[in-house]
Structures are given as structure tokens and as C-alpha cells.
Amino acid sequence: MDESRLNPIAERAFRVAARAPSAHNTQPWRPAVVRLSPLTVRVAVDPARTLPLADPLHMDTLLGMGCWTEAFSIACAEAGARARLTAVTGAGPQTVLTLEVTDTGAADPGRAVRESSDREAAVSGSAAFRSAEVHARQVDRGRLEPDDTALADALAEFSALTELSAPLPAVPRPAEDRSSPVPPAVLLAQIPEPLWARLNGRAALHIAQTPAMLRETLDWLRLDPADPRWAEDGLTADCLRLPRWEAAMLRRLLESGLGRELTGGAEHWQPPLARVLGGLRQRLPGPRSAPARLVLGTRASDSAAGVSAQDWVVLGRSLLRLWLVLARHGLKVSVQSELKDSPASAALLAGLLGERGVDAGAPRSRAHTRGEAPVPFAVFSVGRSTGPVPRSHRLTRPAERAPARAPERR
Ligand SMILES: Cc1cc2nc3c(=O)[nH]c(=O)nc-3n(C[C@H](O)[C@H](O)[C@H](O)COP(=O)(O)O)c2cc1C
């Protein structure tokens, strides 16, 4: 193995993976090179970059870790290396991923996968993508136009990719772990527009259930371009499509006594806010011009709490793959996680997945076993952007390195 070749590959892959999406743009990953031969990367969760109140099961954090893993694997595959997720230990904010990067000896082995339908060439599904696609993908919270043909083509490509490649293998588990060794199921359903409106009604104020929960979200808003964190993480006013003057007003409101009262006594202002939001929603595009609404789910025996950290990571990889395939067809997504986080709307989505969900992870997904029920894990609109999309920012901290002369012993 040529370490000198792998090091720059990993360096570049860290930069590509940093563009992975994450809830509130928290970027919860903390990668470190812990061994040089074989090149081993350990990715921990930064607990300060989790959302314990809005995301108590750490589902979104771990999905984001999966997106990072997928983006890292894509960059490695493009450069002729293979990143293999060899272990997922711990749970929640203590989850640690281990990846081994090995040389495949081929420059750009993904080319064959991208340019032909050669099953033999499909060594790894990550090889079907390019780093440039990871860079170009964006969430678009502006108006999205429906494009049913592009969506159908993208979903067909996603399902062919899942079938064609042998990606996302189950990670080897410790002997005492009796959970299923096969990858988790990925169910997909389109949400009819009237149901979408009902879900919104039920989930609109989910993140403002308690003052502390609202503050947790507000902490990730970047309303002031002069804020040093504006160019690092969180959701900028631009990405949220708030005009700068509105962002300045909101900022002043939140900093004022009134703002403190708002975040200190949600029960007083929730009912009027719900009425305002309800009114606004009636002015939103009706079913005819609305983009498609999709829900992704998996199956679990004990609601979302029954899904292992490892399965969330694997599902996060599928999520990024789907968003990349959609982007390839000119489609962007706008995510609304509160619809799967709010128990009232999650129950409706689980029902929809049970009735109409198609197995997007077939044929390798875990077969439906008795007692397992659908659990929604991602909800988003899909359509064509109607204008330029502001770019989200990322932290630029480098990955930690193993000492060059004293690699960790195996
Ligand atoms: C698991 C997950 C959940 C997300 N939930 C939401 C959400 O509820 N609302 C939203 O506007 N964006 C959501 N996003 C999108 C992120 O905010 C977005 O990826 C991040 O701000 C970076 O922007 P970019 O994807 O355009 O690079 C989510 C992303 C992930 C991976």
C-alpha cells in the first residue's frame, strides 16, 4: 500500500466531505486520522453540535454523519481509493465511526459505473458519484417548481443504482450485538398535497414547544453578516431567504425584552402565531403548482428509538445519494424535518409509508418482519429552483492527524 498516495486522497476527501448536509448546518462530525497503515479515520460526534431538544434520539445528527461518510467515500472512490465503514460504536452523541481507506490501484474506478451499466464494475455505489456533485448540491428554501418527469427519472435512477451496486454493506458488529446484519430498509412515498397541508398544520410549532427548544433552534440562526459565525455554520438569513432588513428586524426583536419574553413563555404567543402561519399557508402555492413532497422511512420494531446508530448512519448515506441523484436531474430539495419529528404528523407519515411506501432499497434491504413498523426519517419537497440559490457556509477546521512517526498499534 502506498501511504504517500493515500494521504493526499484523504486530505482532499475531508474537504469534499465537509460539504455534506446536516440539520441546521450543525456539521456535527469530528474526523481524525488515527492510524497511517492501513489509513484509518475515526469520526466522532461533536456534542456541542447536536440538537438534544429538537432531535432527542439524535436521528438527524446521525443521518448527517451518514451524509459525511457518503461524501467522504465518493471523494475517495473518485481518486482510486476505497473508504470502508468498518465499525460504528456507541450511540447518540457518543457514536464513533471508523473508516479504513485502501488503495484500489485504479484511477477513478467510478468511471465505469457512471458510464456504463456494467454490474461487475459496480464495486461501490459511492463510485457512481463525483466530488463535483457533492459540491454542487444545495438545499433550496425558495419557490420550487414541480417537474414530475425529472422526478420519475431520478427515482428510477436511484432505484437502479441501489440495485446495481453493492454499497452500504452492513458494518461488522460485535458478537453481543444481535441486531439485523443486513442494511436497513429504505421506504419512499409521495405525500399527497392535502395531506401535506394537514401535516404542516400539525407540525408548524413543533420546534417551539418549549422556550428552551425554541432557543436551541434560534442559536443556529445567523441573522447578522457581521457575526463571525455567519461564514461558518448554521442557517444564514440568505439561505433562509429572509431579506436582510427582515433579518435585522428579527434580530432586534430577539435581542429585545420582547424577544426574551417570546423565548421565555411560548404558551402566550403560540396560539396567535399558529393563526398567522395558518393564514400564510393559505397563500402558498396550491396543489397545481406545488413541488412534489417526499417522505423516506425505514422499518423498526420499536419506533424510531429502535433504530441503531449504525442504521441511521447507513440511512444517511442513502439520503445523500438520493439528493445527489435528484440534483443530477436538475432538482433541489427543501427539507422539513419537523414533519417527522412532531409525533402527530409522524404518525400520519408512518401510515402513508405503510400503505403506499415503495421499497427504494430493494432488493438488498431487510425484508419486512413481523412487528416492524414504518418510521419516517426525512421529509422534503422536490422541484426545480426558480432562481439562484444562496450558498451555505462550512467550518474550515482541518481533520486531526495521527502522529507521523508513532502510528497507533493495531
Ligand atoms: C438530517 C437532515 C435534516 C435536515 N432538516 C432540515 C429542516 O428541517 N429544515 C431545513 O430547512 N433544512 C434541513 N436540512 C438541510 C440543512 O439545513 C442543510 O443541509 C444545511 O443548512 C446546509 O445547506 P446545504 O444543504 O444547502 O449545503 C436538513 C439536513 C439534514 C441532513
What's the helix and strand layout?
Blueprint: H1 3-17, E1 29-36, E2 39-45, H2 59-78, E3 81-89, E4 96-103, H3 110-115, H4 131-136, E5 144-145, H5 148-164, E6 187-190, H6 193-203, H7 211-218, E7 221-222, E8 235-236, H8 244-255, H9 257-264, H10 266-283, E9 292-300, H11 309-328, E10 332-335, H12 338-341, H13 343-356, E11 358-359, E12 373-385
Parallel strand pairs: 7-8
Antiparallel strand pairs: 1-2, 2-4, 3-4, 5-12, 6-9, 6-11, 9-12, 10-12
Helix pairs in contact: 1-2, 2-11, 5-11, 6-13, 8-9
The structure holds flavin mononucleotide.
N-C termini distance: 16 Å
Shape annotation? globular
Helix percentage range: 25-40%
How are helices and strands ordered from N to C? HEEHEEHHEHEHHEEHHHEHEHHEE
- The number of distinct helices, counting runs of at least 4 residues, comes to 13
Can you give the mean pLDDT?
84
Tell me how many strands there are.
Answer: 12
Give a concise summary.
The protein is of the alpha+beta class and 410 residues long. It contains 13 helices and twelve strands. The C terminus is likely disordered.
Characterization of this structure:
This protein is an alpha+beta fold. The protein is 39% helix and 17% strand. It has 13 helices and twelve strands. Helix 5 (148-164) packs across helix 11 and helix 8 crosses helix 9 (257-264). Mean pLDDT is 84; it is low at 116-123 and 406-410. Flavin mononucleotide binds at residues 21-25, 60, 63-64, 67, 138-139, 141, 235, 335-338, 392. Flavin mononucleotide is lined by residues 21-25, 60, 63-64, 67, 138-139, 141, 235, 335-338, 392.
